[in-house]
Amino acid sequence: MAKKKGAALLEISDLDVSYGKAPVVIGASLVVHEGEFHAILGRNGAGKSTMLHAVSGLIAKRGGRVRFDGKDITSSSPEKIVELGLIQVLEGHRIFPSLSLQDNLDVAAYPIRRRGKRVDYERIYRLFPELAAKRNDPASSLSGGQQQILAVGQGILAEPRLLILDEPSGGLAPIVVDRILDVAAQLAHEGAAIILVEQLVEKALRRADTACVMDTGRIVHQGTAEEMASSSVVREIYLGHG
Ligand SMILES: Nc1ncnc2c1ncn2[C@@H]1O[C@H](COP(=O)(O)OP(=O)(O)OP(=O)(O)O)[C@@H](O)[C@H]1O
Ligand SMILES: [Mg+2]
Questions:
Q1: At residue 133, what are phi and psi to the nearest 5 degrees?
Q2: Do 103 and 109 meet the contact criterion of CB atoms below 8 Å apart?
């Protein structure tokens, strides 16, 4: 799908991240624009999640810079980064087990309500009927998969300017995965940026505009989703990895 490119929203430059002395992300540079759906591919342990956690301010960076909407967020706190509209969906991160599902959505939408904006909860329930059926039940009664969907719903309700989805498919039925990825594509269509890490390469590239491949901490390949779909680098990495 040819789309007009917006302004650069996330700019990662020469990012280095280490666990102790072990470098895990090495000199990563990536730009994602408003309205762009970017897929990050790469085998297990390549450093994808580590890079994104560093971008979200959840782990320290050893070197490099990160800019969001023109602002330097290299040293910003995770709270500050979320406030700017960079939302990373993390498994169970903002789910309060004793609160009802609706109250959990309410918590996620608090920053939006605080700004006096109306929150479209029904949109989430329309997208994910499995949540609608349980809206008054405590989150602790949800299955693992339902909690995962709730976390995605929370991310959407926060009105992200950039939504990061790190392997949202894990443990979910294919039809639910499709719905999540379609919603992500819709958000990109509406002008948000999406970063999706996904092992289901075909599903990811079908919706993405652009993609990159990480291998042992480095971004080794970048291009349009079409280019990546026919790339030998991508084929090599996923050969025998399902
Ligand atoms: N908390 C941690 N402490 C030490 N090493 C870690 C930690 N988390 C991850 N690592 C290591 O860092 C490397 C990158 O891991 P990371 O989780 O970023 O990879 P990934 O590309 O997201 O993999 P996956 O596809 O399995 O999610 C791996 O070698 C991993 O073992
Ligand atoms: Mg990961």
A1: -65, -20
A2: no
